[in-house]
Amino acid sequence: EVQLVVSGGGLVQAGGSLKLSCAASGVTGGDYFIGWFRQAPGKKREGVACISSSAGSTYYADSVKGRFTISSDNAKNTVYLQMNSLELEDTAVYYCHVSYGRDFWGKGTLVTVSS
């Protein structure tokens, strides 16, 4: 069974940085995408960034391009989301996600950006 364990998140001032981590277990091979979604209060969950397991190709939502960076450490089966120049609009619960046969979600972590 796939499990995604998320760490990071918290409170940061606008313009600051945070790094999220997602440790994946049970993902044993093949080509898949793993990444991050977020859900702000009163809004739908939206994709933020993802990375392919094989080629390492990355994709970003337009709203975070140039500010967020997704990366992976295959030896640790961990995916990271480095978030820089955080804006108030980045406040949301962030979820790690992988599509591996079916969708798997990690427990959300709250990121709060204050002015």
Describe the structure in your own words:
By secondary structure, this protein is mostly beta strands. The protein contains no helices and eleven strands. It has strands spanning 3-7, 10-13, 18-25, 33-39, 46-52, 58-60, 68-73, 78-83, 92-100, 102-105, 109-114. Strands 2, 4, 5, 6, 9, 10 and 11 form a seven-stranded mixed sheet that branches. A hairpin with a 1-residue loop joins strand 9 and strand 10 (102-105). The protein is globular, with a radius of gyration of 13 Å. The model has no long low-confidence stretch (mean pLDDT 95).
Topology (SSEs and partners):
Elements: E1 3-7, E2 10-13, E3 18-25, E4 33-39, E5 46-52, E6 58-60, E7 68-73, E8 78-83, E9 92-100, E10 102-105, E11 109-114
Parallel strand pairs: 2-11
Antiparallel strand pairs: 1-3, 3-8, 4-5, 4-9, 5-6, 7-8, 9-10, 9-11
Shape: globular
* Residues in helices, as a percent range: under 10%
Question: Could you report the average pLDDT, rounded to the nearest whole number?
Answer: 95
Quickly give the structural class: mainly beta
Low-confidence segments: none
Number of helices: 0
Strand elements, count: 11
H and E string: EEEEEEEEEEE
Radius of gyration: 13 Å
Question: Approximately what portion of the residues adopt beta-strand conformation?
Answer: over 45%
The span between the termini is 41 Å
